[in-house]
Structures are given as structure tokens and as C-alpha cells.
Amino acid sequence: MEEAVRCHNAGERVLLTCYNNPLSGFMKKTLGERAALSVGNYHGFCDGLFRKAGIRLDRTKIDNTLFLEQYPKCLAEALAALPKERYDVIIIDEGQDFPPELLTSLEQALDPTGKGKIRLFYDDNQDVYHNRGQYLEKLHEIPFALTLNLRNPQKIHELARHFYKGKETSAIGPEGLEVTWIVAETPDEVRWALHDYIRQLVEKKTHPALRYCGPDRNPR
Q1: CATH 3.40.50.300, applies to 1-144
Q2: Domain limits of the chain?
Q3: Does the model's pTM come out above 0.85?
Q4: For residue range 34-92, what is the model confidence (pLDDT) as tens digits?
Q5: Cα angle vertex 103, ends 97, 112, to 5°?
């Protein structure tokens, strides 16, 4: 999001997009309304253009043909009908979630007379759909590795790095609590174990901002 704001403040027309809707909603709420900055997940962005261009999708069958073939095809048609709906910069967050067909189709949303920049942010370790390499192979990629973990305490980072593949990273936040392993075999056990553990943290006043709001395992 910070890169989108920088480009926007530099006077560039920016599209900030992602694959899933909840992340899109979070980014919209965080950034608010800004002229020349469009925020939305891929399919929501496309749907908005389709409405403006008067294009209707065939939704009689909801499958990969709709999402991986119809959407890219209709996006090209919409942009041909609405050439001003193009951008100087396209920023793609969580790029590893995108099928390569959709990433390729987004290139058409670049203004050919503009700077034509694509920023693709991705995490190899979250590539659960195995999409990432198929698209990046065709890019003149200038990689920039993010090696500082600002999200997790050092204790969690130290544990998680054993499951991480990539460049060495380091956590620069607080040391944090010792990692606790909790065994739970069913979804209900997971939920109750989590409630109980949070309650313990609150009662021990481990973190002054914590407040327990969960149900009571043994209501009276």
C-alpha cells in the first residue's frame, strides 16, 4: 500500500489490486477515496469495467472457464472500449495467489503512453497454488527481497524460519514470549484451546491491551 501512495503522490494513475476480496476491503478502508488511485481485487476491478462498458459475462456455469478465460477476454474488450481506464502503474499485492492468465491480462490495463510500471509483491512461501514462477519467467524482473520481519516477535520468527525457504531474514521487533505448543485434534478443541490460552494471558496480565471476550467453557 505504501508503494501505491508514493506513486499516487507522484502524480501517477495507480491501480492497486490483489486476488482475494477481504484483503481488497482492508486496503480500501485503509487508503480511503483518492483521485487517480483505484483499489480492488481482480474480479471486482473487472466487474466495474464490465458495467461501464456494457459487457455481460456468461455466468450459466461457474468454473475455470469463467474466471480464467472469460474474465481476461472481457477485460481486453472493456479496455478497448474504455481506453481512458488505464493506468501508469499497476501494483499487485499477494501476487503468488494469481493464476498466470490473470496477471498477464492485467498488463492490458497499462497506458501505452505512460510509464508502464508493474510492481508485483509476492511471497514464495505462500505460493500454495504454485502460480508464481509461471508468470515471473516472462518478466524482466528486478527482484528486491524484503529481509526484515516487522510482524512477529523474535521468538516466533526464530521458530518459523525453520519452515521458510528463501533469503535469510531477521526480526527487529521485541523478543516476545516463549512459543507454546497446544495439541488439539478437532476444530472445537482448537477453538476452546485458543480461548483458554488467551484467558490465561489476560489473567496473568501478560499484555495490558488484551481483553478476554470469548465464551465460557463451563457456563453456569
Answers
A1: yes
A2: 1-144, 154-211
A3: no
A4: 999 999 999 999 999 999 999 999 888 888 889 889 999 999 999 999 999 999 999 99
A5: 150
